[in-house]
Specification:
The complex is a heterodimer of chains A (108) and B (155).
Chain A lengths: L6 H4 L3 H9 L5 E2 H5 L6 H13 L3 E6 L2 E6 L1 H8 L3 H25 L1
Antiparallel strand pairs in A: 1-3, 2-3
Chain B lengths: L4 E4 L6 E8 L3 H9 L1 H8 L2 E2 L12 E4 L5 E6 L2 E5 L3 E8 L7 E9 L5 E8 L3 H8 L1 H21 L1
Antiparallel strand pairs in B: 1-2, 2-9, 3-4, 4-5, 5-7, 6-7, 7-8, 8-9
The chains are: A alpha+beta (108), B alpha+beta (155).
Chain lengths: 108, 155
C-alpha cells in the first residue's frame, strides 16, 4: 500500500505541530524528542515517521545516533499555501481602489 | 514591503480574517460595497439585485460570451451601518462550498485612508481549508479567463 500523506494532514495533529516547534531551534534524536512528551515512545515514533514521510523532517546520521531536523523548503510550502488566496483578494481590492479613485475624480 | 492585503487563518479554526488598508476615505470604501454598479466593476460580476437593508438579498451572476451562466452567488444582509459595518451571508451556488457568514468592518484611518476587516466564518475547518487551497486559485483563474473573454468581446 502506498501511503499518500500531504503536509496539511501532517500538521493537522497538535503533537506533530509541537514536534516541529521543538525542532525549530535544534536537531534532536527520537529519544530526546519523546522525552518532551507524556505520550508513549512508539506514538512519538509514529508521529516522527509521518513527518518524515511527508518530508517536513529530515534524518541526519551522526555516529550511531539519528538526529531529526526541519526541512526548511517544505516548511515554506505550508507558509505559502494561502498565498494564492491572499493574492486573489489583493488583486480584487486593488481593483476596488482603482474603481473608487476613478469614481471620486469623476465626481469632481 | 508589507503586503497591503493580509490573510490570517489560524490552525483548527473555521474562520479567517482578511484585512486591507485603502487609499480611500471610509465613505468611498463603504460605497464600493453598496452601489451595485460599483460592485459590478470591482467584483467583475453582474449584480442582479443589491438590497441594502436588513434581510435584503443580493444575487450575483457571471455569464460567458455565449451567455451561459458560469458563476452564481447570493447572500442576505443582516446588518448595515453606513461607513461602519456590514454583516451578511454569502454563498456560491452549485459549488461544494456551503454558505458562509461575513462580518465586514469599515474603519477610518485618516481623511483619505481607511481599513477593511473581513471576518469570514465557515461551516467547518475542512470547508475553510478547502477554500484556501489550490483548486480555489484554479477556479478563480478560470473565472478570470472567462471575464477576459467577455471584456475582449466588448471592445
Amino acid at each position: 500500500m502506498r501511503l499518500r500523506r500531504d503536509v496539511f494532514q501532517a500538521i493537522a495533529d497538535p503533537t506533530r505541530r509541537a514536534i516541529l516547534l521543538l525542532l525549530t531551534s535544534q536537531t534532536l534524536t527520537a529519544g530526546a524528542i519523546a522525552a518532551n512528551f507524556d505520550t508513549a515512545r512508539p506514538t512519538v515514533s509514529k508521529h516522527l515517521q509521518i513527518l518524515t514521510e511527508c518530508e517536513l523532517l529530515q534524518q541526519k546520521q551522526n555516529g550511531r545516533e539519528i538526529y531529526y531536523q526541519l526541512n526548511p523548503q517544505k516548511i515554506r510550502e505550508i507558509a505559502d499555501f494561502i498565498e494564492p488566496f491572499r493574492k486573489f483578494w489583493d488583486d480584487r481590492f486593488n481593483k476596488l481602489e482603482d474603481v473608487m479613485k476613478k469614481y471620486k475624480s469623476d465626481k469632481k | 514591503m508589507e503586503p497591503k492585503t493580509k490573510v490570517h487563518a489560524e490552525d483548527d479554526k473555521q474562520e479567517l480574517l482578511i484585512t486591507r488598508e485603502f487609499d480611500l476615505p471610509v465613505d468611498l470604501l463603504f460605497k464600493a460595497y453598496v452601489e451595485p454598479e460599483l460592485v459590478e466593476q470591482w467584483m467583475g460580476t453582474k449584480v442582479l439585485q443589491l438590497e441594502n437593508k436588513r434581510h435584503g438579498s443580493y444575487p450575483f451572476e457571471t455569464s460567458d460570451a455565449q451567455g451561459n451562466v458560469v458563476f452564481r452567488a447570493n447572500g442576505v444582509m443582516h446588518e448595515l451601518k453606513p461607513n461602519e459595518k456590514i454583516t451578511r451571508t454569502f454563498e456560491i451556488e452549485n459549488s461544494p462550498f456551503t454558505v458562509q457568514l461575513e462580518f465586514l468592518q469599515f474603519e477610518k484611518l485618516s481623511d483619505d485612508t481607511s481599513k477593511l476587516i473581513m471576518h469570514i466564518v465557515f461551516k467547518s475547518v475542512a470547508m475553510r481549508n478547502q477554500l484556501l487551497q489550490m483548486p480555489f486559485a484554479q477556479g478563480i483563474n478560470m473565472a478570470h479567463n472567462r471575464l477576459q473573454e467577455i471584456v475582449s468581446q466588448l471592445k
